[in-house]
Amino acid sequence: MDPVVFFAVVTSLYGVLYFFDRFFKSCMHYPYDAFLKNTGLSVNFMSLHWHTNAFNRALLRWGSAGNSCTRNFMVTSFNVGVLLTFSLLPIGIILLIITIFSGGEADTSAPYASAMPVQLEILLPGVNLPLEEIGYYITTLVLCLVVHEMGHAMAAVLEDVPVTGFGIKFFFCLPMAYTELSNDHLNSLRWFKKLRVLCAGIWHNFLFAGICYLLISTIGITMSPFFVYNEHVIVTELTRKSALRGERGLKVDNLITQVNGCPISSVESWHSCLYSTMKKRAGYCVSADFIQLNDESSAISHHSVDGQLQCCDELNPNVSCFEVVEDVNGDVPVELPQHVCLNVRRTLEEVTEHCTSGLCSEGFCLRPLMRNITAIMTFKRLNLNGEKLPPVIYVGHPWDVSRTVEVSAFVPRYRFLSAAWPDAWFLLLKYNVVFSIGLALVNAIPCFGFDGAHITSTVIHSFLVGKVDQYAKRDLISVIITSVGSLLFGLALLKVAWLSFLRPLM
Asked: What is the value of pTM for the model shown?
């Protein structure tokens, strides 16, 4: 979804909710208040809050169920979570420093850098997310936050700390979740038991990331009853401006097997083959008889702008100038000129094989003379029944193909299935891995409002008791450390805001 449309829809929904909230509170005060109390909802300006204690009894039953082995396993698991959290602290600080002081310049040398979509920088250096997929981000954040808070709740139940409720707050489109625990019971725990509760959310995020990564690794197996994965790519969408539309062009549900002889088996190989058509000019093996019968050469000239050699009529878009490439033995018939002008489509239909060094088992190697921004691309394709279709020939820039043709590595086994379903699931899993690890790293940092602040306070008050007697001084040390972490996090957020939103607008 387009980001502007998404933000407009969210703003409109909040406006409607806020209007009816004010209306019902003024006209139907008591029934509406009873509804809000029973559902746990509250509506404010550009924010929505939901709180519930419906899961409290289920958690208590779960905590009292099971045998000692199950409990010992859970305790050991949360112990590992404590060790993992302390190992993430220096990693999180280093990543914040890298984010703050990195250049943040786009790689203009990349072939498609000039037309890249708007991207969202996050606090993991080198990870950029397209803003068009913001719906996935919000869904992923909600899932990761719920998993995080359930970790705190499960650890609290194991330590006999009452859980009084759960809640989710939406500030515009930013979700925030929380677990409401009894502070008196939590603070009465010994320091390591308290750390188990505080670090459980981070540990659960890592476990969740591992589960999602396992699902990604086995997606070909899990989807195999319904989809063929990573054998070919299927065309899922052609934009209206795509030059590959038309009777002789690509169609939705076409299976693309090759581009200029480069085999296509995944989305990554699709982009790699398109990129290689620009970096490495493909040669074509054509018979000498075909060349002699179809040569339309005119006087050789050079373009005035780029100096590109031209041996065809520039007003004829169907022909191109080809160079005869000598093989390593210099084997070129005398009757063939060095440059010939041929019809592009008829020539590519006569191709027996592709050549790189001038060697052909049959015929002679011809290499098209094209401007740097264009390339000749031949797309071999199949239909859903596996039957061969006529190849599609396109002359243009590979980026135009990548930008206007959407493909998927999931080929449906049945016609009523759509590749959009596993694509959406695969993308959601990938974002869950990235966001879960990112949420764990951020929460390990000593920053106000995060688990790291409570963890830092617990460690300082537990280990500095013998050296710093006064509670106020220990608390001051904790506040100073947390303030430094908050400053680094704030600077990183400003950098992210600059790279993602402010700089693209300037």
From this structure: 0.79
